[in-house]
Specification:
- The complex is a heterodimer of chains A (384) and B (224).
- Helices cover 50% and strands 10% of the residues of chain A.
- Chain A has 18 helices and nine strands.
- Chain A has a seven-stranded parallel beta sheet with strand order 1-4-5-6-7-8-9, sandwiched between helices. A two-stranded antiparallel ribbon of chain A has the order 2-3.
- In chain A, a hairpin with a 7-residue loop joins strand 2 and strand 3.
- Chain A starts with a helix and ends with a helix.
- Chain B is α/β, with parallel strands linked by helices and 224 residues long.
- Chain B is 55% helix and 10% strand.
- Chain B has a five-stranded parallel beta sheet, sandwiched between helices.
- Chain B starts with a helix and ends in an 11-residue tail after the last helix.
- The relative contact order of chain B is 0.10.
- The mean pLDDT of chain B is 91.
- Classes of the chains: A alpha/beta (384), B alpha/beta (224).
- Chains A and B meet through strand 3, helix 10 and helix 16 of A and helix 4 and helix 9 of B.
C-alpha cells in the first residue's frame, strides 16, 4: 500500500489495513508512538499499533469484550441483539462509550453462520441464542456433503451482521478499533450436527467431516473478507475445538487446521490482522500458530504447553499479541477489587515489552452487572 | 478362547472406537454365556480405562464419547439378560442421581459424559436431559428421593436460575447433595450459589461425588 493511500484512508477517518504497510514503517511508527506515550495519553489506535508491534504503549490496551452485556446499557433484548443490525450496533457502541476500552470485538452469539446454513435457532428472551439440537440440520454423516453453499452477503443473519459491522466501523472511525468475528468451520458444524455427534464423526468419518468443513470454509472466507472490506482492522476466528475441550491436537490439525489456515490467509490478503479466539482449556497454541500464523490469540486458560504465565510470555510473547484472560467465574463472583488485583497480576506478567491486551477470557457474562468491566478498564489505567 | 480372554476382549473393545468391534465382542460373551456381572465388570473396566486415559492426556473427548457408546451397547445387551422387575429392583438398591442441564442451556455433552461415568461407577442415574425446567428436577427428586443432584450449564446466563433451584432443593430435600459443573464455574462460584460439590471437568465427578456423599452432614460445604 502506498504512503498516499494510507494518508487517504486516515483522512477519510478509516483505519488503513496494517498488513499492507511495510514492516519497517510500522515499527518506526510504533516506536515513535511508544515514545510519545511516555508523555502523552495515546488514542486507542495508537495503543493497539504499539502493542501489536511489541512495544509498550502509555497503558495496556484493554477490551471488556462486551457482547450481550452491552445490551444492558442500550436496553435491548437478547433476540434484538442477535437479529437487528441497528440495535446491535447501538449496543456495541454504547458499551464502548459507556464502559470504555480500546477494542470492540464484534462477538454476537455463535449461531450466526449456522442459522444461515439452515440450522433452526432458539432466541430466548433472557439468554443468548442457541441451536435447537432436537432438530439438527445435519442428520447423518452423509449430511456434511449436502450442506448448501450460500452467499453470506444475501443470507439473513450474516448480511445483518455485516450491516451492523458497517455501522460500528463508521461510528468508531479512528477513535476505536473494531474486530470482526467468524466461528470456525468445526464450530459451525457443531451447531448443525451437535458437538457430541460431530466429535464422534471426526474420529470415525474424518473425510466426511472435512467435506463439510470445505463447504463451510468457502462461505466463511467470503464472509470474513466482506468484514475486511468494511474496514475492520482485525478479524477473529473462534477455533474452540483446538483445545482439550475438543479434539486431540493431531486430529484438530488434520481436520480443521488446514481450513482455518485458508481463512487466515484470505484475511491477511486483505491486510487485516488475524486473531484467534479460543476459550477452551489447555488450548493448542502451537498447533494453531502452525495452521493459521495468527497475529493475536485471545484465550481463557493457559495453553497445554505452558505451566504458568511467565512461561507463556517467554514462549509466545514475542511471536503474537496475547489477549486475555480474566476468567469468567471471577467476573461473575469477584468483587471489583479482586478483579483489579487479578488484572494487575496479568499486567505484571504479560505486558512488559508490549504484545498484550487485557481482556476477559471470553465474552463478558451477558447477564451480570457491568461493575467488573469497569474494574478492568480501571486496572489498565492504574497498573500500566 | 476361554471366558477370561473373551471378557478381556470385551474390555478392550470399549477402547476400540469402533462399534463393530464392540458388537463382535458382545456376541462372543453372549455365546460363551458369561455371567452378567462379569460382563458389566469388563465394560466398566474399559470405560474406567478411557476415563483414566483422558485424565493423563492419552485420550481426547471424542475417544471418551466413543468408549461411552461402547459401554452403553454392552449395558443394553445386559438388559436382555434379566427380567425388567429384577433390573428395577437392582437399580433401586443403588445410590440415586438426578442429573441434567438447567433451563436456558442446551449444551449437554459434558452432562452426558458425567451421566455415563457415574452410571459406570455404580450409581443409578436419572438423566433429565437439557434445557430442563426446575419443576422437572423437583418432580424427579420427589419421586426418586435422590441422593445426588448433578446440575450443569456451559453458559453463564442460567446461573441465577440454577441458584434458585439449589435454594429450593436444599429446603425441600436436605438429604440430597448437590454438585455443579460447566464452563462458567469455579469452586468459589459453585459455593456461592449453594452447591455442596464442584468438579472442574466431567471426568473428575465420581471422586467429587464420593467426597461430598461421605462428608459428614452439616460439613458438606465446598473447600477452596
Amino acid at each position: 500500500m502506498s504512503f498516499w493511500r494510507v494518508l487517504k484512508d486516515l483522512k477519510q477517518g478509516k483505519i488503513p489495513p496494517v498488513g499492507t504497510i511495510p514492516e519497517s514503517i510500522l515499527d518506526f511508527a510504533a516506536g515513535a508512538v511508544s515514545f510519545r506515550g511516555r508523555f502523552k495519553t495515546l488514542g486507542s489506535l495508537e495503543r493497539l499499533l504499539t502493542t501489536i508491534r511489541h512495544k509498550e504503549p502509555d497503558q495496556v490496551p484493554v477490551t471488556p469484550i462486551l457482547g450481550g452485556g452491552a445490551r444492558q446499557i442500550s436496553g435491548i433484548t437478547f433476540p434484538d441483539h442477535s437479529l437487528n443490525a441497528e440495535k446491535t450496533a447501538q449496543a456495541f457502541l454504547d458499551g464502548w462509550r459507556f464502559v470504555g476500552g480500546d477494542l470492540v470485538i464484534l462477538m454476537l452469539d455463535l449461531s450466526v453462520e449456522a442459522a444461515d446454513f439452515g440450522q433452526k435457532i432458539e432466541y430466548p428472551a433472557n439468554s443468548t441464542a442457541f441451536p435447537d439440537y432436537d432438530t439438527p440440520c445435519i442428520k447423518d454423516v452423509d449430511g456434511y456433503a449436502r450442506i448448501p453453499s450460500i452467499d453470506p452477503l444475501k443470507t439473513p443473519r450474516m448480511s445483518e451482521f455485516l450491516r451492523m459491522c458497517r455501522i460500528v466501523v463508521k461510528e468508531l472511525g479512528l477513535k476505536g478499533n473494531a474486530c470482526g468475528f467468524v466461528f470456525g468451520p468445526l464450530g459451525v458444524l457443531a451447531m448443525m450436527r451437535g458437538a457430541e455427534q460431530l466429535f464422534k464423526d471426526c474420529v470415525r468419518y474424518p473425510e466426511k467431516v472435512k467435506k463439510g468443513c470445505e463447504i463451510i470454509t468457502g462461505v466463511l472466507i467470503e464472509y470474513a473478507q466482506a468484514q475486511c472490506d468494511i474496514g475492520v482492522p482485525a478479524l477473529a476466528i473462534d477455533t474452540l475445538f483446538a483445545s482439550r475441550n475438543g479434539l486431540s491436537k493431531k486430529l484438530w490439525e488434520e481436520i480443521e487446521g488446514p481450513f482455518a489456515g485458508e481463512i487466515s490467509r484470505a484475511v491477511k490478503k486483505k491486510g487485516v490482522l488475524f486473531a484467534v479466539h479460543n476459550c477452551g482449556h489447555d488450548n493448542y497454541f502451537d498447533a494453531q500458530i502452525r495452521s493459521m500464523e495468527p497475529d493475536i490469540i485471545s484465550f481463557a486458560h493457559l495453553p497445554d504447553d505452558c505451566k504458568d504465565r511467565k512461561e507463556l510470555k517467554q514462549k509466545y510473547g514475542d511471536q503474537i499479541t496475547l489477549v486475555g484472560y480474566v476468567e469468567t467465574p471471577l467476573l461473575t463472583h469477584g468483587t471489583p477489587v479482586e478483579v483489579m488485583d487479578e488484572c494487575r497480576r496479568m499486567i505484571d506478567d504479560l505486558a512488559p515489552g508490549g504484545g498484550f491486551i487485557l481482556a476477559p477470557g471470553c465474552e463478558y457474562p451477558p447477564n451480570i452487572p457491568l461493575t467488573n468491566a469497569f474494574a478492568m478498564i480501571k486496572a489498565a489505567e492504574k497498573y500500566s | 478362547m476361554n471366558k477370561t480372554d473373551i471378557l478381556i476382549d470385551l474390555e478392550q473393545s470399549v477402547l476400540s472406537k469402533n462399534p463393530d468391534v464392540t458388537n463382535r465382542a458382545l456376541q462372543a460373551v453372549k455365546k460363551a454365556k458369561c455371567p452378567a456381572d462379569d460382563i458389566l465388570k469388563a465394560l466398566t473396566k474399559g470405560l474406567e480405562k478411557a476415563r483414566e486415559g483422558f485424565k493423563d492426556d492419552r485420550y481426547s473427548i471424542p475417544d471418551l464419547l466413543l468408549a461411552i457408546d461402547a459401554y452403553r451397547l454392552g449395558v443394553n445387551l445386559l438388559k436382555t439378560y434379566s427380567s425388567s422387575s429384577d433390573v428395577q429392583k437392582e437399580k433401586k438398591s443403588r445410590l440415586q442421581v438426578v442429573i441434567g442441564v438447567v433451563e436456558g442451556d442446551v449444551h449437554d455433552m459434558g452432562k452426558n459424559i458425567v451421566a455415563a461415568v457415574l452410571e459406570a461407577s455404580g450409581y443409578c442415574v436419572h438423566d433429565m436431559g437439557r434445557n430442563t425446567p426446575n419443576e422437572v428436577f423437583l418432580d424427579k427428586l420427589e419421586s426418586t428421593k435422590a441422593d445426588v443432584l448433578a446440575l450443569s450449564t456451559m453458559m453463564s446466563t442460567p446461573i441465577d436460575n440454577m441458584a434458585e433451584l439449589i435454594r429450593v432443593v436444599k429446603k425441600m430435600y436436605p438429604q440430597t447433595v448437590i454438585i455443579v459443573g460447566g464452563a462458567p464455574f469455579d469452586a468459589k462460584l459453585a459455593r456461592q450459589i449453594g452447591a455442596h460439590g464442584y468438579a472442574e471437568n466431567a471426568i473428575l465427578v465420581p471422586e467429587e461425588t464420593k467426597r461430598v456423599l461421605y462428608t459428614p452432614p452439616g460439613n458438606k460445604q465446598l473447600y477452596l
